Every structure is written in structure tokens, then in C-alpha cells.
């Protein structure tokens, strides 16, 4: 069995679960479509804790995502495939999605960039974040819009990106200067407790 066939077979196994266990479909639709809003909300909550470490974490995650997206777009130039529902018959398609190049998965890049960065900065809850990223990746297969290879490629690109960026960003003086400048403005418009107690 070649890699392409393995990719399709694994897709069928995961996607067919939605036909056999329809009671789970709403959960996986939420993960595939709307979990991104939860991620965005969590990023905002972390940012407005006004803790230096959390702000470095969000900056690192955002940069990791941008870097991973760039690498992902380059990878998409070397290999491309349409979504499974556009290429295969009898796909359990549960959400609407335009037909385009689905390699690698942008959703997976986003979640693994942020969740891997959260894992690096917050060891206590790290495995929860990785579990969320994995579930979102699986959900994109479950609802019929990505192959496993799309998910795997997106995850690997983001994990490497997050590790590199999380090592570099805290060592960059201009990031520290940016935060100090930002916080001066923040204290002017949103006065509150003194963040210096968190440093």
C-alpha cells in the first residue's frame, strides 16, 4: 500500500465514524468550525492578564503562526490536493467548504502554532492544549474537509515553528521594548493594577 492509498484509507476510517456515530457529529462540527473562536477568546484572556510571560506567549504564538503559514503556503506549491469531498465519493461532509488546495491544513497550522506555544510556556496545562489541537485536527477529517496528510503536515510545520519562535522571541530586545511602549499606552487608556508586580 503506497502513501497516497494509506492517506485515503485513514481518511475513510475517521470520516466513516461520523456515519456510524452520528451523535458525535455536532461535537466535531463545533471543534472543526467554532473552536477557533474559543482559541481567540483564550488568547485575549491571556493577553489581558497583563502578565509579562503571558504576553510573550501570545506574541510567540502569533509569530509562530505567521511563520508556519508562510512555510505552509510554500509547501502547498510543491504538493497540492483538493479536499476529500471534492475528490472522493460517499464522503460524510458535515460543513461547507470551498474547493481549493487543502494541503496543508490552515486550521491545523493555527491550532498547533498556538497550542504548542501554550504547551511550551505553560507546562502545567500543556497537554490540555496539545489535546485540543489534536482534536481539532481530527475533527477536520471527521467533517470531510481534510486528509490526514493535510493535518500531519500542518501540525509538523507548526510544532517546529513554535519551538524555534518560542526560543528566539524572549531573547529579542525589541519585543521587550514594544511591550513597554504598548503598556504605557494601555495604562493611559485602561488604568488598572500595576503590572510591574508581575515582572
Automatic annotation (TrEMBL):
GO terms for cellular component: plasma membrane. SUPFAM superfamilies: Acid phosphatase/Vanadium-dependent haloperoxidase. This is Undecaprenyl-diphosphatase. The chain crosses the membrane at residues 28-49, 56-75, 128-145, 151-169. Residues 58-166 form the Phosphatidic acid phosphatase type 2/haloperoxidase domain. InterPro entries: PAP2/HPO (IPR000326), PAP2/HPO_sf (IPR036938), UPP_Pase (IPR033879). Keywords: Membrane, Transmembrane, Transmembrane helix. It comes from Cytobacillus firmus (Bacillus firmus). GO terms for molecular function: undecaprenyl-diphosphatase activity.
